[in-house]
Amino acid sequence: MKTQDVRTYTEQRLRRLQTLPDNQRRAELAKLRRGVGHRPGELPELWGSFLLGMPEGFQGNNGPTAAEWAVYLALTLYAVHQQGNDRPMNCPGNTLGRAVRQLAERNAGKDWEESSVLRRFNALATAEEITEISHHLRGMVQLLSAAKDGAIPLDYPQLAVDLYELQCTDPRYTQIPANVRLRWGQDLYRETKNASSEEEEKEN
Q1: Which SS3 state, helix, strand or coil, does residue 90 take?
Q2: CA distances from 86 to 27, 89, 151 (A)
Q3: Spatial CA neighbour of 177 closest among 131, 100, 125
Q4: 122-140 pLDDT, tens digit each
Q5: Within 10 Å of residue 112's Cβ, how many Cβ atoms?
Q6: Which helix (H) or strand (E) holds 16?
Q7: How far is residue 20's CA from residue 101's CA, in Å, rounded to a whole number?
């Protein structure tokens, strides 16, 4: 497994993007957005955006590898998420499950479990083929970007790791994709204290 390498390489690419001069960064993000809906490697103009400096172990000879898919999706979806947002949409620790919980709570308050967002998240979590996963994930990122009261960021290096592990087909590690989905569910239902709940505790 190259899990830590996937995280590290994705972090490096995001850092490079964030340190570019404004005009260059906007151009690079626009280019990455054009890659959404395409397979890694389909658009020659994007080769440098996700392959430059990529560890050789990520690359295969028979179509995109799991690592190439993971990095490519993380970078192109980050570019979609960042569009129109001034603050960085990559936020360490704000995993997919946590971000979806925030979105559901904004949409439906205390009835967040009834939010239509969860139905879409369930469709994403039960998708098995990477192109189907990428389709549902694109819709989720667009919802996070357009959230009321401001866009909700994501931990993109962690997302790349999740996407990499979801594609594991090694019969010795059949539990790995299931573990990713369990982690999403745990993060979704993990209680996080906010200011109002702390105030209620003080009053009681």
Answers
A1: strand
A2: 15, 9, 10
A3: 125
A4: 999 999 899 999 999 999 9
A5: 18
A6: helix 3-19
A7: 32
**Residue 90 backbone phi and psi in degrees, to 5:** -100, 115
Q: Quick one: which of 130, 103, 110 has its CA closest to 120?
A: 103
| Helical packing angle, 156-166 and 96-108, nearest 10° | 110
Q: Which amino acid appears at position 90 of this protein?
A: N
Tell me the three state secondary structure of residue 95. Answer: coil
- Calpha distance 29→18 (Å, rounded): 10
The token pair that represents 200 in the structure block: 């209620």
Helix (H, G, I), strand (E, B) or coil at 154: strand
User: Quick one: tokens of 111?
Assistant: 């009835």
Q: How many CA atoms lie within 13 A of 130 on its CB side?
A: 25
Q: How far is CA 171 from the centre of its chain?
A: 26
The whole-angstrom separation of Cα 31 and Cα 185 is 33
DSSP labels for 104-118?
A: HHHHHGGGGGG-HHH
pLDDT digits (tens, 9 = 90+) for 9-47: 999 999 999 999 999 999 999 999 999 999 999 999 999
Strands (DSSP E) found in the chain: none
How many angstroms separate the CA atoms of 10 and 156, rounded?
8
